[in-house]
């Protein structure tokens, strides 16, 4: 169980950091927010991958396609986060 939590944090950090690098503009957020966006993005990417391809976690927990899906999901979550943040400043 502890290994799963550590893996989620590491994958979340990697996916969130890559998403922040790929999305243009400056994002003022902490490392904790980056990890949370990466973890939520992993769930979003996994859900989208399941809907599109019909694969689930029984095919293996850590796969390259899962990491790519995590990054894509983190980009989606980051764009939604930035869009919601810009609406608050009105």
Offer a quick outline of the entry.
This protein has three helices and no strands. The chain has 90 residues and is mainly alpha-helical.
Radius of gyration: 13 Å
> What is the averaged pLDDT score?
81
Helix content: over 70%
Number of distinct beta strands? 0
CA(first)-CA(last) distance: 43 Å
Beta-sheet strand percentage?
under 5%
Following the backbone from N to C, one meets helices and strands in this order, namely HHH
Uncertain regions: pLDDT < 50 for 5+ in a row?
none
**Total domain count:** 1
Number of helices: 3
**Largest sheet report:** none
Approximate shape: globular
Question: What is the element layout, followed by pairings?
Answer:
Elements: H1 2-22, H2 31-53, H3 64-88
Helix pairs in contact: 1-2, 1-3, 2-3
């Amino acid at each position: 169980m502890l290994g799963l939590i550590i893996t989620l944090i590491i994958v979340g950090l990697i996916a969130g950091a890559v998403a922040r690098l790929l999305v243009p503009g400056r994002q003022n957020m902490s490392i904790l927010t980056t990890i949370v966006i990466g973890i939520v993005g992993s769930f979003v990417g996994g859900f989208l991958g399941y809907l599109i391809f019909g694969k689930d976690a029984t095919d293996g927990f850590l796969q390259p396609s899962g990491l790519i899906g995590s990054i894509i999901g983190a980009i989606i979550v980051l764009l939604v986060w930035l869009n919601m943040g810009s609406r608050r400043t009105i």
